[in-house]
Amino acid sequence: MGERRSTLHRRARRLGRAILGRRIAAARQRPERLRRIVAEYEVGQVFLNDGRVPVRWWIKADNFGDLLSPWLISKMTGREVTFFDPARPHYLAVGSVLNRGNPCSTVWGAGAFGIEDGTRFASDARYAAVRGPLSRARLVAAGITCPEVYCDPALLAPAYFAPKVPKTVTFSLDENALRNMRWLILVLLPLIPAILGFGVWWYRRA
After folding, report:
1. Where are the domains of the chain?
2. Rounded CA gap, 163 and 179, in Å?
3. What is the per-residue pLDDT across 162-197, written as a single tens digit (0 to 9) for each?
4. What radius of gyration do the chain's Cα atoms show?
5. Do 135 and 113 meet the contact criterion of CB atoms below 8 Å apart?
6. 191-205 helix and 175-188 helix, angle to the nearest 10 degrees
7. DSSP letter, residue 166
8. 3-state SS assignment for residue 55
9. Which pTM value belongs to this model?
10. Cα 184 to Cα 196: distance, rounded to the nearest angstrom
11. What's the sign of the alpha-carbon dihedral 61, 63, 65, 70?
12. Over the stretch 107-155, which tens digit does the pLDDT of each residue have?
């Protein structure tokens, strides 16, 4: 009994921490808070090509995170973004594209999948920031110097796009639930006359 109570107590604490963690994360991601943070900084010198910011992202498949890269950088810099030649200076930002770097890359917020071959990371790229400690650890393990500067640029997206969506309540049933409901109706339907008859009898009896 004591062991079971201890297990329930640990689970309750984990659940409490998880709920608290989600609330703290949600508070930190409020668009108004992110806008205040963004307002404290200004975009420094950015290398351009014909007035556009040269960026590379994953284009072999439509992926939300990767497609966010050109949109977000355009919002942050106020300039058009272009997918650029890897042999010329360019940026790597949102997405797990850390292994796409080369000597012409400036990495700002890109991350690693975690299963890449370490030899695919560019030792001579410029690493301004990576997505998180695990991405940096992959670089360090490959003998690459990387500053302890972390940022996932995608986290700033709500500062530039945060539409107010009305809350709606929807209710739907899958096929299995509908089947169960049909059986419930078939079982309860014959009881309705009996229930009504009992109600009438009780009313007259009173």
Report:
1. 1-30, 42-159, 175-205
2. 38
3. 888 787 766 666 777 777 777 777 777 777 777 777
4. 28
5. no
6. 40
7. P
8. strand
9. 0.67
10. 18
11. positive
12. 999 999 888 887 889 999 999 999 999 999 999 999 999 999 998 888 8
